[in-house]
């Protein structure tokens, strides 16, 4: 198990001001450290649902000491091109002035953050479970593994290394976690029984373990220096309205944050409170 990102929230990257990001990340990570110690401090940025991504946020994560950064939402045309060119993973240079201090390995997940089609094992899904009783009329292990291998082999063509991420879960999932893990255990077991034949090996992993495997692969990654804005999920479906909507709320956010920054600076000047 691994804590990832660690902020109090998964903040937006378009309308947010950098001090807001730093404050909420500081609060969340400090809380994790207080409860779990140094082992609870995240090393991976995880922004799977914001609508577009900024190089400034990548720069901030690098300066926070994160080892990598993963997200799911990318403009559909950019995503299509990156799959074809095997550029879903790259080094993101967030600042020309800061150089390597603002560089971070970045990976785009293959399916936003959802499971492969047909492999959602949540109580809200209607996909077939893996039935491994050979005496059952519903026995389907071979066909289910075959379908999963089709997905894996196609997804593998989008990445440069022999390691690929497969996300399992979705919004409001794992309320019945046992059903998920029972099926995942079966899927991993029966797929790996055929690994000599298929050259596919499945395992439970974490973002840090995945990143370690990528580093050990010796692959050279492309570089990116600009933003992932605007975000479009389909033709004529640009997720940009929130750039200008709710102006009064945005004003209050900036105003309150300015007051907070001023109070923090006054607190520093005042020094620690004497305790008698």
From TrEMBL:
The keyword Manganese does not apply. Residues 1-232 form the Glycoside hydrolase family 38 N-terminal domain. Keywords: Glycosidase, Hydrolase. GO terms for molecular function: alpha-mannosidase activity. It holds the Pfam family Glyco_hydro_38N. This is Lysosomal alpha-mannosidase. Gene3D superfamilies: Glycoside hydrolase 38, N terminal domain, Glycoside hydrolase family 38, central domain. One of its GO terms (biological process) is mannose metabolic process. GO terms for cellular component: lysosome.
């Amino acid at each position: 198990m691994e804590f990832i990102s660690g902020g109090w929230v998964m903040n937006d990257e378009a309308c947010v001001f950098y001090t807001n990001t730093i404050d909420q990340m500081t609060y969340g990570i400090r809380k994790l450290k207080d409860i779990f110690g140094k082992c609870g401090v995240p090393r991976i940025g995880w922004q799977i649902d914001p609508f577009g991504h900024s190089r400034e946020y990548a720069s901030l994560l690098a300066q926070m000491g994160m080892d990598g950064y993963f997200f799911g939402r990318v403009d559909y045309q950019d995503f299509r091109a990156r799959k074809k060119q095997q550029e879903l993973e790259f080094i993101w240079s967030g600042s020309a002035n800061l150089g390597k201090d603002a560089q971070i390995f970045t990976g785009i997940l293959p399916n936003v953050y959802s499971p492969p089609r047909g492999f959602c094992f949540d109580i809200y899904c209607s996909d077939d479970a893996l039935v491994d009783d050979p005496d059952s009329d519903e026995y389907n292990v071979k066909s289910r593994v075959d379908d999963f291998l089709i997905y894996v082999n196609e997804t593998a063509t989008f990445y440069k290394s022999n390691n690929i991420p497969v996300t399992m879960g979705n919004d409001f999932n794992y309320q019945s976690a046992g059903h998920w893990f029972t099926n995942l255990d079966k899927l991993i077991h029966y797929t790996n029984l055929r690994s000599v034949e298929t050259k596919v090996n499945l395992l439970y992993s974490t973002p840090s373990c995945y990143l370690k495997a990528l580093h050990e692969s010796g692959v050279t990654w492309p570089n990116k220096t600009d933003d992932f804005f605007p975000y479009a999920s389909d033709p004529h479906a640009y997720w940009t309205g929130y750039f200008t909507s709710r102006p009064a709320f945005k004003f209050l956010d900036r105003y309150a944050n300015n007051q907070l920054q001023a109070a923090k600076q006054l607190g520093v000047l005042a020094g620690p409170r004497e305790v008698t």
